[in-house]
Amino acid sequence: MEKEIIEKYEKAGKIAKHAIEYSKELVKEGASILDIAEKVEKKIIELGGKTACPVSVSINNMAAHYTPKFDEKTVLKKGDVVKIDLSTQVDGYIADTAYTCEIETKKWANLIKASEEALHAALKIIKPGISISEVGAVIEKEIRKYGYVPITDLSGHSLEQYELHGGMQIPNFNNNSNQVIEEGAILAIEPFATNGIGGVTEINELEIFRIKEAKPVRLPVARKILEYVADEYQTLPFAKRWLIKKLGTFGIETGLRELARAGALHQYPALKESGNGIVSQHEHTIIVLNKPIVTTL
């Protein structure tokens, strides 16, 4: 891998790390989740990067893909288990990272520790030639050690330029796959632990999207969305609230529906734990070399 590319991944990782630390100042009782997401996204830009995905603030049984609506009113409460998941990019080279905290209580301290320790255990063994099932087995073992279960419907993933979810998935359990991790792979490792049943269910919350490919569409607002997203985010995910800020509220829902019907749009529904269990998540990005580099640490 070229040195220049590694440096861009490392720069994105450093920005992500600083953004995570900044978010910890914001996540507290009474804080607006919309305020948290927007301030962290602004901080990423101030630090010299760009967002590679909208900041997600997923609470309690919500596992992933919950970014606030344009007019979101939700505030954090005492006892909430909060996942902050953010992605940064420099020239399309991505860093993906996440952590979990509990607001003012410690009821779920071991659940949070389970996903955190599972992540650390996985990072210690990742090297060129290791199978993805070996990584998954270590993650699962660590989570079960604390009396919880991994969410098997969610996985880590490879990262490519302007592609947040590449072709390789890294399971959070032993899936008995012989697929190996090759030198030079860029991976986001993200264990999810829960006291639920270990699966996720889609809910009717669509706030994150990605353009799969430009398609001919009839409505002017749909064409405006395509043009704006192609210029600003390319193939990376974007938030509906970002469109509303740029283009206004009129016609956005209709435009997104037309793009979806045309096959131009990939949608990321919010995901909750299928058994309504509480969920914790931790994530880091690693460049798999003979001496691996964890860019977000």
Structural features, described:
The chain is an alpha+beta fold and 297 residues long. It folds into 2 domains: 3-202 and 277-294, Alpha-Beta Complex (Creatine Amidinohydrolase); 204-270, Arc Repressor Mutant, subunit A, CATH 1.10.10.10. Helices cover 34% and strands 27% of the residues. It contains 7 helices and 15 strands. The chain has a 5-stranded antiparallel beta sheet with strand order 7-6-8-14-15. Strands 2-12-10-11 form a 4-stranded antiparallel beta sheet. Strand 14 (284-287) and strand 15 form a beta hairpin. It starts with a helix and ends with a strand. The mean pLDDT is 97.
Kindly summarize this structure in a few lines.
This protein has 297 residues and is α+β, with helices and mostly antiparallel strands.
